[in-house]
Specification:
By secondary structure, the chain is an alpha+beta fold. The chain is built from 29 helices and 14 strands. Strands 2, 3, 6, 9, 12 and 14 form a 6-stranded antiparallel beta sheet that branches. A two-stranded parallel ribbon has the order 1-13. Helix 22 runs parallel beside helix 25 and helix 25 packs parallel to helix 28. The longest helix has 107 residues. The chain is elongated. It starts with a strand and ends with a helix. The relative contact order is 0.05. Keywords: ATP-binding, Coiled coil, Cytoplasm, Cytoskeleton, Microtubule, Motor protein, Nucleotide-binding, Repeat. Belongs to the TRAFAC class myosin-kinesin ATPase superfamily. Kinesin family. Ungrouped subfamily. It comes from Carya illinoinensis. InterPro entries: ARM-like, ARM-type_fold, Armadillo, KIF11-like, Kinesin_motor_CS, Kinesin_motor_dom, Kinesin_motor_dom_sf, P-loop_NTPase.
Amino acid sequence: MAYGQTGTGKTYTLGRLGEEDTAARGIMVRAMEDILADVSLETDSISVSYLQLYMETIQDLLDPANDNIPIVEDSKTGDVSLPGANLVEIRDQKSFVELLRLGEAHRFAANTKLNTESSRSHAILMVHVKRSVKGKHSALSSEKGSNLHMKTLRPAIVRKGKLVVVDLAGSERIDKSGSEGHTLEEAKSINLSLSALGKCINALAENSVHVPVRDSKLTRLLKDSFGGTARTSLVITIGPSPRHRGETASTIMFGQRAMKVENMLKLKEEFDYKSLSRGLDIQLDKLISEHERQQKAFENEIERITTEAQNRISEVERNYEDALEEERVKYQRDYMESIKKLEEQLVKNQQKHGFEKVPVRSEDDCSALTSNTESSKISAVEEVSELKKLLQKESLLRKAAEEEVNSLKSQLAQWKRSEASGNSEIIKLRKMLEDEALQKEKLEGEIAILHSQLLQISSEADETRRRLDRGGSGKVPGDLDSLFSQVKLQQQEPGNGEKASVAKLFEQVGLQKILSLLESEDSDLRIHAVKVVANLAAEETNQEKIVEAGGLTSLLMLLRSSENETIHRVAAGAIANLAMNETNQELIMGQGGIGLLSITAANAEDPQTLRMVAGAIANLCGNDKLQMKLRGEGGIKALLGMVRCRHPDVLAQVARGIANFAKCESRASMQGTKTGRSLLIEDGALPWIVQNANNEASPIRRHIELALCHLAQHEANAKDMISGGALWELVRISRDCSREDIRTLAHRTLTSCPAFQAEMRRL
């Protein structure tokens, strides 16, 4: 913080941007340069808030409408926070300078006799840095032949740091500054807050029991700076004029008293097991809901098939009975009619041919009788022929009826076979339902195990925190594979029964010996050796030694020659750690690493192996110099090929690689070194990007949203993005994205691209 009389150069010392002369940069700009040089933007996050304390109200310089921010104190730790302040994520120095310029434009200043631009408020810049400590992430082990994964989870340790830069408003005497009206009220408020700060410094310097930190909001905000847990640097500024001798002496005395105050520095680390627990709960809810949905779908399908089969059987039986009854009635009626006709015809014939006794006739009468008898015979023959025709017709009808009956019988047999197949399908579905019930029981057992592990993690976290508070080491033992590797390497040396850590093993055995074991004929020993190298590569201090000793070449050789899935997974993870360094990235590309990683990705089925390979390629995608070579050797195709796995961790790494590649392309197009369409679009990545732009997993969605914004910044991609449906995803991101920086970037891109504006007006 800077303290001193008004007009003596506090704002000049802290807040100068140095745009015209870099040597005139203030402490704020220089501090951010140092922070950005010492962090990795892939694993660390930097966020900034810029505030002013004006007339005892805290206002946000980045959002002037937010002009009354409350102060919140943690009842357990006593930490002070400002939950209402805007937190802006910083990725580079340019955005930070723009943020400072925006904040300075909203700061209150006035013209007095001592200073033409006198600050009328205390400016407070807060920089928050978070880092996850490497080597303590979750581990996953799976049993062969099972689709269920048993997880042994360890929460990451999150290390937090906060830089507070305070530009205090200058103390002033009214008779010298000539303040009047509203400016006079501002001066009174400034002097009161500085007076409260002085009282706190005096109380702390004299080891007083009571420190009046609640007399002013300024002292409450600076509670950690004096007598707290922060490392504090104080800049005091004085004027050279003898006229201000009194103010100069007062400022120097303030600095002397402040030097007597002692702070107790504290490293702030905590286990991030809350986010781990939240992720487990979400995963369990998804598993349970998915299982319930599948079980309900199975039950509905079984009920539908059963109902349909019963309806079809009932309909067939009913149709068969109706057809049989109709045929029986029809044949009976025809039969009765035929019998009746035959009886009537027989009676007629008997009446015509009956013999009666007649008297002796004459010769003429006999000839007449003979002619009548012959005519009667002719008519009888005709009637017999007609009866034969009727009988033939009846026989034909009977045959047709028999054929129809046979057809109905065959249909009935077919329906019965259909019923039998329906029953077999029902039995099969019931068996599937039983299998689902068994799987549900297994899932419930896994859920119980995960809950017990979560409770154990929480108890271990509490125990570790207590050891840290007592001054203990708080170290977590290394994994069993590394320890078993050390035992095998030290078989010939007598030991005391204790397994040394990987660092101790590194010191005792030496890097060359460990690397030589990568070529061992014993596959088990080779697996443990590559795990040790992977653990060493996770530490940035060891990476240069590993590369110089030929470790990178050995790891790439393992990818080329070994067929062991475990070796591929661990070697790819070690290469991913080494690929975080720009120099190592060029070495990996120079030794054909991207081709080997692509082949490994094409042959791998294990999601963890694919995640490691995707992570390595994603790190390589962030290098501007390697864009064309990476694409030419199949790096983009390999990334897109890994989406077949559908595992969220693999998809998150693929999305990160695409976002890194799109960011480098966007930067190249803005610098004028690249023209034409994006290589991602040419390789067919746009449909997958649009499909996953609103993915429910936040890491995937965040990287995809960034990739879309970077692709949209180059106008050559506008036509493809409009035809591929990416325009409306950009509109959604500009309105609904949870992160303000991405939302702002999407809005700026939409408004600056004429093609997007024309398409939106047309639609």
